[in-house]
């Protein structure tokens, strides 16, 4: 089993349900760890055998930035469900941070792990 980590993916989306949040895009910071099976790419050095983290990242960006969410939990579930649906992926752990969600805190985050 191997891991790919996507660190500090900064996205903007409509998130929140309070009056001052509705209709406004806010920053979210995602950290994603993908557990998957190798297919020989570590020996062959062939890019076409590797899990394509660029494609995964592009779809995560599309899912989050084109969505509207009330809760961090829903963002995490949507991203995790997509990643776990990929053939070679065995599991995913992710943390979704909402910077400045609380006045005296750097951020609020929600973490989720999903396996097949």
UniProtKB/TrEMBL annotation:
SUPFAM superfamilies to which the protein is assigned, alphabetical: Tetrahydrobiopterin biosynthesis enzymes-like
E.C. designation(s): 5.1.99.7
GO BP terms in the entry: folic acid-containing compound metabolic process
UniProt entry tagged with the keyword Isomerase: yes
Pfam (any one): FolB
Keyword terms: Isomerase
Domain of life: Bacteria
Catalyzed chemical reaction(s): 7,8-dihydroneopterin 3'-triphosphate = 7,8-dihydromonapterin 3'-triphosphate
GO molecular-function terms, A-Z: dihydroneopterin aldolase activity; dihydroneopterin triphosphate 2'-epimerase activity
Family membership noted in the UniProt record: Belongs to the DHNA family.
The protein's name: Dihydroneopterin triphosphate 2'-epimerase
């Amino acid at each position: 089993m191997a891991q790919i980590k996507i660190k500090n993916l900064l996205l903007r989306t409509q998130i929140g349900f309070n009056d001052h949040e509705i209709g406004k895009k806010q920053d979210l910071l995602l950290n994603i760890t993908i557990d998957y099976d190798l297919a020989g790419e570590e020996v062959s050095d062939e890019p076409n055998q590797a899990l394509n983290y660029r494609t995964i990242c592009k779809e995560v960006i599309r899912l989050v930035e084109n969505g509207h969410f009330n809760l961090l939990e829903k963002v995490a579930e949507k991203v995790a469900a997509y990643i776990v649906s990929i053939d070679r992926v065995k599991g995913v752990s992710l943390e979704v941070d909402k910077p400045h969600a609380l006045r005296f805190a750097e951020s609020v985050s929600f973490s989720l792990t999903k396996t097949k």
